[in-house]
TrEMBL record:
NCBIfam families found in the cross-reference section: ccoS (TIGR00847)
Listed InterPro entries: Cyt_oxidase_maturation_cbb3 (IPR004714)
Transmembrane residue ranges: 6-26
Name of protein: Cytochrome oxidase maturation protein, cbb3-type
UniProt keywords, alphabetically: Membrane, Transmembrane, Transmembrane helix
Entry-linked Pfam families: FixS (PF03597)
Organism listed in the record: Rubrimonas cliftonensis
Classification of source organism: Bacteria, Pseudomonadati, Pseudomonadota, Alphaproteobacteria, Rhodobacterales
Length: 48
């Protein structure tokens, strides 16, 4: 029983940390251009 008193707050804390990280990536624009990276790898750059 004493293990649950420790594990439940730790699990809730880790869940909130993951949620915070996900919201931070949404606000910083990580998911704005999903097709750009996939298309950039197919085209050669002539900048050399």
């Amino acid at each position: 029983m004493t293990n649950l008193l420790l594990l439940i707050p730790v699990a809730i804390g880790l869940g909130l940390l993951g949620l915070f990280a996900f919201v931070w990536t949404l606000r910083s624009g990580q998911y704005d251009d999903l097709d750009g990276a996939a298309e950039r790898i197919l085209h050669e750059d002539d900048e050399y």
